[in-house]
Amino acid sequence: MASNISGVRSAADETGQSSTTLLEVAKDLSKRSEELQTRVDNFLSDVRAM
Predict the structure, then answer these.
(1) pTM of the shown model
(2) Where are the domains of the chain?
(3) pLDDT tens digit at each of 50 positions of the chain
(4) How far is CA 26 from its chain centroid?
(5) CA 45: distance to chain centroid?
(6) What is the residue-wise DSSP string for 2-41?
């Protein structure tokens, strides 16, 4: 019984760590997406100005 509880606790900890990592990656992806959008907007603005 104690080993089952320990296993569940371990799995819950791993799930928490994975979700934290996933959140960090999602935030980074969002930031990069915004940067890319800015670069594309600037590029298109430059092309239109030609």
Answers:
(1) 0.70
(2) 1-50
(3) 777 888 888 899 999 999 999 999 999 999 999 999 999 999 999 999 99
(4) 1
(5) 29
(6) HHHHHHHHHHHHHHHHHHHHHHHHHHHHHHHHHHHHHHHH
